Structures are given as C-alpha cells and as structure tokens.
Amino acid sequence: MTTEDRAHIAARAAALLGAQLAPRWKPLPHQIPPPGNWYGWALIAGRGAGKTDACAEYVARHVAGPACLPGAVPHWIGIIAPTLGDAATACVEGPSGILAHDPSARGPISAPGGSVVRWTNGSQAKLFGTDSPGDVERLRAGGNTCLIWAEELAAWRHLDAAWDQMRFGLRSGPRPHWVASTTPKPKPLIKKLVAGAVANTVLTTGTTYDNPHLPEHIRQALEESYGGTQLGQQELLGLIMDEDKNALWTRQVIDATRVRAADVPDLIRITVGVDPSGGAGEQGIVVAGKSGLILPTLHPMPEGAPAAGTPRPEHHGYVLADRSCHLSPDGWGRRAVQAAVDWEADDIVVERNYGGDMAVATIRAAAEALGIDIPIRTVTATRGKKVRAEPVSVLSARGRWHHAGEFSELEDQMATWHEELGWSPDRLDGSVWTAWHNKLVRTTQSGRGSLGGDLARKQIAGGRLR
Known about the structure:
The protein contains 15 helices and 17 strands. By secondary structure, the chain is of the alpha/beta class.
C-alpha cells in the first residue's frame, strides 16, 4: 500500500466519521424523488433551486441501494454534463456534488476509459461531456449503464445526438433509468419534457425562491441580472421562455419563412459570417447565401408583414448552417474556414471590433494550415447590435430572409435577445453580418438601415490566401 493510498483511507475515514456526526442532508420538497417505477425524472427549475444537490443525493442513494448487477461492480452509472469539466466540477467535486453527499466516493479518477468516480462498494460512474461530435461518439462507446445523471440537459451542445446515445446505453440491471437537472431553454426536447411527451417521465419544477439555503448574495446577484425581465421567467422561475416581446424576431415569422434545404434556389453568393467573442463566450459562425432575383409570389409573406407595392423580383437570403462554437482561437478559426470549404463560400466576413487584427490573423492562419484560398473581408461596426439587426428582422418580416432547416440555438437568440439584456448574441451577429455583406440590406443617408451601403466600414484583409 502506497503512502498516497494510506492518506486517502485516512481522509475517507475522517470524512465518514464527520458525516455520521454532522446533520444529514435534508431535501426540500422539490428535491424529493417521485415515487413509482418511472424511467426518467426531470427536475427543471430556476438557478440556485438545488437541482444538482438533489441529483447528487439521488446517485449516492442509488449506489448505496440494492445492486443492479452481480459481481464486483454493483452499479455502472453515467454522469453527463455540457462539458467533461462541468461533470467533474459541478457533479463530483463541487459543493453540491457527489463527494459532498457521499464520503465513500472517490474521484474524479483518470482511468484507461476516461474520468470516473469510484465507491468503496465497487460501484463506478463514468463522466462525459457533450460539447463536440467526439463527445457524442464517446457516449456511443461508453458502455451500458443502470443509471444516468444528465446535468444541465438544456445546455448540452449536441443535445439530440447525445440524448439518443444516452438512452441506447441505458440498459443494465432490472430498472435502468435517468435523472436530469436543468434550467430550461426553449429547445424541442426540453419542451417535450415539460409537456409530458416523453414516455414514463416525471416532471418536477421549482424556482430560485424555493431554496431557503441559497446564499443571500447569490440570490441578490441573480435578481439584479434577471429580475423584472422576461428572461427571469427562465433563470429564476424555471419556465420556458420561448420568445421575448422586445425581441426583433418572433417564432411565427421565423417559422413562416423557413424552407427545406432541398428548396433553396441557386445562390449567387455564399458568405461565412464570423462574430468573434473577444476571448470569452461563444464565437458566432453562420453560413448564409444570397439568391438571384425572385418574384415575391414564390415566397408568400407571413401574416402581418408590411403590404407590398407593385410586385418586382428581389434577392432573398438563406441561412444554410450554424457552426457557432466555444473553442480556442485555433479551433474556431479552423471551424470557420471548414464551413467555407463545406459550403464552397465566396468569402468570410469577420467583425474586427474585438481583438483588432487578431480575428483576421486567426482565420488567415487556419486557412493557410488547411491550404485554403479564400478572401477574408472585415467589418468594423459603427453602430449598436440592435441597429444592425433591425433591418434584417424587417427582411424576415417581408419574406426575404429564410432558414434552410432548423437552427434552434440561433433561433433562440433571435426570438429572445434585445439590447437591454446586456449579453452579446454571437450567432445572431454572425448571421446579421452576412445579410449586410451581401447587400440584402443597406443604410440610408440618415444612417438607419434599409432593405436593399452598410452600417460598417468594410475592407479586404490580405487578398486571397495561398
């Protein structure tokens, strides 16, 4: 036995003794698992409601209960979070994680198959993220489980694919099942869970105010950020906020102008719009194209759109792909260039406001590394995001801006963002830049946007790359 093993045993013994002497964690009403032989328990609540605590306690009690499997490993569990780091810090090591609820657990431990948590009775839990297609493939190969904990389900980047792989592997023991803890977002799966459309699933809801143990400074910070806003319905009350009355788009307009990818006409120009994050947050990377002239009768305007004058052919814009990401500069640069390759784009347009020439250098280096020859255009915004986005929203209302398919995260931003919220809509910005760059909208002499020029100064950066 190594010195490290002895130290761990001593620490665990002290923790077990401390746990026996300390008051037992007592769940709040919304943290109590539902009775019955359910397949899934979805705990959907506001921030700070105690969702992670409830699921960590559930996992600990499951491990301490009757064995699901014969042999040395009585329970095989999967813990899935937005990223692998989230699974480790929030679900295992954090103040609401497994180690806080069960001193017999040890982890995260680096094992040949990945990061795991181990219990003294032999049970194991493997940690997964959902941030990339590779993470989804690791879920596919992650083995069979008797229990899954899905942490912050609504924030999973590859939600639908990861959800499928999670369920496919949930087949060990007499009653394989899952528990999920999340603040809601208007995503199709979350809407189905709330509507009771997922078989044999029990829904528990809660709000930030249902947790009397939440530190007062945290509660005040949340209220300062979200109190009195529609977004507060989601972040504080745990309600799905499908759209904001102050947003520039409505779901009705987005849906009314949506087309199938197969119905996109021949495009005379395709552009990749890039909105860098300035070192934090996501990078907006959206591919959009411009059609030739189309008669308005080919694309009926949605209800409530402004009345048209004499019908005349007009150009239309089509969002083709949303490749937005949260990666290192090299990662997002390559992703933007790869999007241009995949869609045979004519150019890449990037906002320079954050990082100056750094964004251009990032994309140029990625293009050179991939051996790609494509122009990089730069734009420097001279007015606010709302002023830039308004003319594009009018373009949508007039039936000339279409989504070729569904882009849920981009559409969430379109239907919920407004300037007063104080956060940057990266995906929305990336798509808006393509509309301006392709001259589907332009400025009038007053500087306000019109349909048909730019709110920004444009230049080519470095010519064509070789």
